[in-house]
Write a structure and sequence with these properties.
The complex is a heterodimer of chains A (366) and B (529). Chain A has 366 residues and is mainly α. Chain A contains 13 helices and 2 strands; from the N terminus they run βαααααααααααααβ. Chain A has a two-stranded antiparallel sheet. In chain A, helix 1 packs across helix 2 and helix 3 runs parallel beside helix 7. Chain B is of the alpha/beta class. Chain B folds into 3 domains: 230 residues, 3-Layer(aba) Sandwich (Rossmann fold), CATH 3.40.50.300; 203 residues, 3-Layer(aba) Sandwich (Rossmann fold), CATH 3.40.50.300; 74 residues, no CATH class. Chain B has 19 helices and 20 strands. A 6-stranded mixed beta sheet of chain B has the order 6-7-8-3-9-10, with helices on both faces. Chain B starts with 7 loop residues before the first strand and ends with a helix. The chains are: A mainly alpha (366), B alpha/beta (529). At the A-B interface, strand 1, helix 8 and helix 9 of A face helix 10, helix 11 and helix 12 of B.
Chain lengths: 366, 529
C-alpha cells in the first residue's frame, strides 16, 4: 500500500476576475495559436504555403470593393439573426427555430412582392411586406412560446420542428409561384418592375441590411440591459421561482419575448428576399438560423460582442470559396480552419477562468 | 492523555482564491480514529475549503497532509478514496434517475455486479444502523434518505475517515437523532469522523473535540466536555458575544391580518392547509412551529399571493381600519393595494434572490417596476445596495459581485436588508437563520425585533424551538396543515410545543394567548375546528 508522494506538476486554481486587457490578450494569443496550427496543418496536408492560403482568405472577403460590401452584408444578416435570437436565449428559452422564422419572414415578403406587383405602388409593397414579414416571423415564434407558457412543452423541439414546417411551406409556394412553370424555381421576382424591391440607402444596395442590423443591435443591447422588459427577461432566465416571487407574469414574458425574437428573425427574412436575393428558395436562410445560435452563445449574449463573432464566421465563409478556386482545395478545408479557430477561441475561456499553478521547485521534495 | 497516532494531520495549510483572498491560512489540524471532531467556524471561515482539500477537490497552495503519519498528496477525489477519506457534501451529488445501489457503485472500477453490491450495502447498513432500500430511486427519496445514501456510498468505498459537511442542516430533529446514533456506531467501529455544523447544541451532543476556525485561521481545539457554547462562540467570533434575544412587549398591538378558513391544495392534489384561522397583530412576532412540510410554506405563500387558495380569506387591516382582501392577489397587486408586505423565503438563492445578478440588480427585484417609462432606474438600487452593505456589514468585494459568490450569512443579509428596506407592515420570514453562523443569526434576530418595535406584524417560521420560544410573542403550532394550538411565547414550554407539533390536539381549549389577542371575539375562530 506504499504510495509514493507525488506533488502534481501543476494544479488548477480558479482565477479571480481578470482585467479586460488581460482577457483580451489571452483571446488574441488563442487566435494566433489557432492560426499557427492552421498554418501547420495547411503545410502538412496540402503542401501549399499557408501564407498564400491566408492571403486568399483575406482576398475572398476583401479582395475588391464589391467583395467587401458583400462580406459586410453577410455579416449584417448573420448579426441580425444572432441578435434576434438573443432575448430568447437570455430567458433560457432555447429558440433554435431562427431558420424557420427567417424563412417565413422571407416567404411573406415574396408573397407580397408577387401578389401585389402592379397593384399598389412599390413603396407600399415594401411597407406591406415589412409588416407581413415581421408578423410571420412573430407568429412562428409565438406558437412554441404559447405552448411553452400554457403546457410547458419543450421549446427546443418545438422550434426545431417549426423549421421543417417553414421549409415545406416554402417548397409548397415555390411550386405554386414557379416561373417558368415546371422549373421548380421562382427566379428573380418582379425582375422588370422591381416592385417591392427594398430601397437602396445612400445609393448602395448593400446599405439597407447594414443599417437595419446596426440599429437592431444597438436597440437590443439597450433593451436587454436597461429596460424593464430586459430586466424581467433576465430574472425569468435566471430563476423562475424568483420571477414568481416578485410577481413577474412568466407566461407573458415568454410570449412577449418570443414575439420579439421571431419578429426580428422575420425582418432578416425580409431583407434576404426583398433586399438581397429577390427570390425565395428553401435554402435562402442558408443555415444561418443555426449558425446564429453559436454566434449568440460565443458572445455570451452580448449584442456588441456578436459583431466580431459573426464577422469571424462570415470572413471564413467568404474566404472558403476563394481558397477552393485558387488552390483547387475543397471548400471543407476552410471549414476545418473555422473549426480550429472556434475551438481555440472557446477553449481559451478555460484559461480566463482558471490559472495553472506549477509545482514549486523549492518544495524540498520532488 | 495518551493518543494514538493521528489518522489525519494537516500542517500549515494555505489556500488562496485569487489574489489576497485567504480561505485557509496556516491551518493545523489533527483527526484521530475513534473520535468525532466538530469543525466550527462562522460562515466563510474556511471549514468547507479545508475539508475539500482533504477530499481532493482543491489542492492546497502550501502545507502538508499526513495520513497515519505518512505524508501524502491528494490530487483528486479518487486519491482521497484510496487513502480512505470520504466526504459527504452539503449538496448531494447523486443521480436522480438511478437507484441507491447504482449511485453507490457509480464511478467504481472493476466489473459491475449489482447483486454483490447490494449485498455489501445491506451489510454496511446492518453494521451501522442505516435504513436504505438499495433499489429505491433517488428522486423518490426524502432528503434524509438521500443523505444516508451519500454516507453509505462513502463507506462502501472503504472510507475510514469521514467528513460530513453540515449534515443536520436539512434534517428534522428526529432524523438528526438517528444520524447521531449512526455516527456513534461508526465511532465505535474506529472511524475518524469530522462534522461541520453551526449548531452548538449538536456540537456539545455529538463531538469529542471541537476545532475552531476564524477567518481561515486555526484558532484552537477544545475538549467538548470541558467547554461551553459560550466559550466556543467567543473563540469563533474572536470577542465576547451576548447570546440573548430581546423580547420587548408589543407596543399598541392592533389586528393587522386575519386569516379565516384558509384551505390550500398543492399541485399534487395533497391538502396542505385545512381551515386555518389565525390573527396577526401589529408590533408582535408570531412564531410558527411545526415539523417540516406541515404547511408553513403554503401559509406564507398564500399571504404573499404566490399560492393558489382553495377557499378562505386573508384580510389585511390598514392603520385606519380599512379592510383589504389578499386572496386572489399576486405580489404586484398586493403592492398596488398599498400593502407593504415583505417575505424572506426559505430558498434564498432560488426564490428570494437571483444568484448570478449583482447586489444592485437584486435590489431591483422589488422595485424595478417603479417609475414611469420603459427603462429601469439603476441608480437608486445601487445606492440602496451600498446602504445595506454598510448598515448590515455585508462582507462583499463590491456591489457588482454576483450574490451567489457571497457566503450564506451575507446572502441572507442582502435578502433581509432588501425586504426590510420596503418598510413592511407585514414581515414574513421562513427559516431565516438556516445555515447561518451565530453572529449573523443574532444580527438577523436583532433586525427582526427592531422591525417589531417599529410596529410591523412579523410572522416568523422557525425550526429551532429554543429560538422560537425566545423571540415570539405568540407561537402558532401547525400540525398536518392545521392550527394545532396558539401559545403564549413567554409561558409556553418546549415540550408542549413539541407535542403539538407531532400530534393533533382533540380540542383547542388549552390554547393560551396574551391579552391583546383575546380582545374582540371573532365568531370565525370558534368554527375553526
Amino acid at each position: 500500500m506504499e504510495k509514493k508522494i507525488r506533488v502534481p506538476l501543476f494544479h488548477l486554481a480558479k482565477r479571480e476576475e481578470l482585467s479586460k486587457k488581460k482577457k483580451f490578450i489571452i483571446r488574441i494569443i488563442a487566435i494566433v495559436a489557432a492560426l499557427l496550427l492552421c498554418a501547420l496543418l495547411t503545410a502538412l496536408a496540402t503542401g501549399i504555403n499557408p501564407l498564400e492560403v491566408y492571403g486568399s482568405l483575406v482576398g475572398g472577403a476583401f479582395g475588391s470593393v464589391r467583395k467587401t460590401w458583400i462580406t459586410l452584408q453577410d455579416l449584417s444578416i448573420l448579426l441580425l439573426i444572432s441578435v434576434a435570437l438573443t432575448p430568447a436565449f437570455t430567458m433560457k428559452f432555447w429558440n433554435i427555430g431562427g431558420e424557420g422564422q427567417v424563412l417565413v419572414g422571407g416567404l411573406a415578403t415574396a408573397a407580397c412582392m408577387i401578389l401585389l406587383e402592379n397593384k399598389i405602388p412599390s413603396v407600399l409593397i415594401m411597407l406591406v411586406s415589412f409588416i407581413a414579414a415581421v408578423l410571420a416571423g412573430a407568429l412562428w415564434g409565438l406558437i412554441p412560446a404559447v405552448c411553452k407558457a400554457k403546457w410547458n412543452t419543450n421549446e427546443t423541439l418545438m422550434t426545431l420542428m417549426m423549421n421543417y414546417i417553414a421549409t415545406q411551406l416554402v417548397s409548397f409556394f415555390v411550386i405554386i409561384w414557379e416561373v417558368p412553370k415546371g422549373s421548380g424555381k421562382i427566379g428573380i421576382i418582379n425582375q422588370n418592375s422591381h416592385d417591392g424591391w427594398m430601397v437602396q440607402l445612400f445609393g448602395s444596395k448593400y446599405m439597407l441590411c447594414i443599417v437595419v442590423s446596426a440599429v437592431v443591435t444597438v436597440f437590443m443591447y439597450i433593451y436587454l440591459n436597461y429596460s424593464k422588459h430586459g430586466y424581467e427577461i433576465q430574472v425569468v432566465g435566471q430563476s423562475i421561482n424568483t420571477a414568481k416571487y416578485v410577481g413577474i407574469n412568466i407566461s407573458k414574458v415568454i410570449i412577449r419575448t418570443m414575439l420579439l425574437s421571431g419578429a426580428l428573425c422575420g425582418l432578416a427574412g425580409m431583407l434576404l428576399v426583398g433586399s438581397i436575393n429577390h427570390t425565395i428558395t428553401t435554402t435562402i436562410a442558408g443555415g444561418q438560423g443555426f449558425t446564429a445560435v453559436m454566434v449568440s452563445w460565443m458572445a455570451k449574449f452580448n449584442p456588441f460582442t456578436m459583431i466580431p463573432c459573426a464577422f469571424l464566421i462570415v470572413f471564413m465563409n467568404r474566404g472558403a470559396g476563394e481558397i477552393a478556386t485558387n488552390f483547387g482545395l475543397n471548400p471543407s478545408f476552410a471549414d476545418i480552419m473555422t473549426g480550429i479557430i472556434l475551438f481555440f477561441i472557446i477553449g481559451c475561456e478555460f484559461f480566463i477562468n482558471y490559472s495553472i499553478k506549477f509545482r514549486k521547485m523549492s518544495g524540498g521534495r520532488s | 492523555m495518551e493518543k494514538p497516532q493521528a489518522a489525519v494531520s494537516m500542517r500549515n495549510i494555505v489556500k488562496t482564491f485569487g489574489k489576497g483572498v485567504y480561505a485557509n491560512r496556516d491551518v493545523d489540524l489533527d483527526i484521530y480514529h475513534g473520535e468525532i471532531l466538530s469543525l466550527l467556524g462562522e460562515n466563510g471561515s474556511g471549514k468547507t475549503t479545508l475539508m475539500n482539500m482533504l477530499s481532493g477537490i482543491y489542492y492546497p497552495d502550501e502545507g502538508e497532509i499526513f495520513i497515519n503519519s505518512k505524508p501524502v498528496s491528494i490530487n483528486s477525489p479518487k486519491d482521497a478514496y484510496e487513502l480512505g477519506i470520504g466526504m459527504v457534501h452539503q449538496h448531494f451529488k447523486l443521480v436522480d434517475v438511478l437507484t441507491a445501489a447504482e449511485n453507490i457503485v457509480l464511478g467504481l472500477d472493476g466489473a459491475l455486479d449489482l447483486n454483490k453490491a447490494k449485498e455489501k450495502i445491506r451489510e454496511i447498513c446492518a453494521r451501522y444502523g442505516f435504513e436504505v432500500d438499495p433499489d429505491k430511486k433517488i428522486y423518490s427519496m426524502s432528503v434524509s434518505e438521500k443523505q444516508t445514501v451519500e454516507i453509505v456510498k462513502v463507506l462502501y468505498r472503504g472510507a475510514d475517515i469521514l467528513i460530513l459537511d453540515e449534515p443536520t442542516a436539512v434534517l428534522t430533529p428526529q432524523e438528526t437523532k438517528k444520524l447521531f446514533e449512526i455516527m456513534r456506531n461508526m465511532k465505535k467501529d474506529g472511524k475518524a469522523l469530522v462534522i461541520i455544523t453551526h449548531k452548538l447544541a449538536e456540537v456539545m451532543e455529538i463531538s469529542d473535540r471541537v476545532a475552531i476556525l476564524r477567518q481561515g485561521k486555526y484558532v484552537g481545539t477544545l475538549i467538548t466536555k470541558n467547554t461551553s457554547p459560550k466559550e466556543m462562540t467567543d473563540m469563533m467570533v474572536g470577542r465576547k458575544v451576548e447570546l440573548g434575544i430581546e423580547r420587548p412587549e408589543p407596543i399598541d398591538p392592533k389586528l393587522r391580518l386575519r386569516i379565516s378558513n384558509l384551505s390550500v391544495t398543492d399541485a399534487e392534489g395533497i391538502q396542505k392547509l385545512k381551515n386555518i384561522n389565525l390573527d396577526i397583530y401589529s408590533g408582535e412576532i408570531l412564531g410558527i412551529a411545526g415539523i417540516s412540510g406541515c404547511g408553513q410554506k403554503e401559509l406564507l405563500e398564500s399571504v404573499a399571493g404566490l399560492q393558489k387558495v382553495d377557499s378562505g380569506s386573508i384580510i389585511y387591516y390598514d392603520d385606519d381600519g380599512t379592510e383589504k382582501e389578499l386572496v386572489g392577489m399576486d405580489p404586484v397587486k398586493i403592492k398596488e393595494l398599498g400593502v407593504a408586505l415583505s417575505f424572506v423565503p426559505e430558498d434564498r438563492l432560488g426564490m428570494g434572490l437571483v444568484g448570478d445578478m449583482d447586489l444592485s440588480d437584486n435590489m431591483m427585484l422589488r422595485s424595478f417596476r417603479d417609475g414611469k417609462g420603459v427603462f429601469t432606474d439603476r441608480k437608486s438600487p445601487h445606492e440602496r445596495a451600498e446602504k445595506i452593505v454598510k448598515q448590515l456589514h455585508v462582507d462583499t468585494p463590491g456591489i457588482e459581485t454576483p450574490v451567489r459568490k457571497l457566503s450564506g450569512g451575507n446572502i441572507q443579509k442582502v435578502l433581509v436588508g432588501r425586504e426590510l428596506y420596503l418598510r413592511p407592515s407585514v414581515l414574513m420570514t421562513a427559516y431565516v437563520v438556516r445555515g447561518l453562523d451565530i453572529n449573523s443569526s443574532y444580527t438577523i434576530y436583532d433586525l427582526i425585533v427592531f422591525q417589531k418595535l417599529s410596529g410591523t406584524a412579523v410572522i416568523f417560521v422557525g425550526e429551532d424551538l429554543d429560538v422560537l420560544l425566545q423571540i415570539s410573542d405568540r407561537v402558532c403550532v401547525l400540525c398536518d396543515g392545521q392550527v394545532n394550538g396558539i401559545l403564549d411565547g413567554r409561558k409556553a414550554e418546549k415540550s408542549e410545543v413539541g407535542l403539538l407539533m407531532t400530534s393533533l390536539a382533540e380540542n383547542h381549549e388549552s390554547v393560551s394567548e396574551p391579552a391583546y389577542a383575546k380582545t374582540g371575539s371573532d365568531p370565525e375562530k370558534e368554527g375553526g375546528n
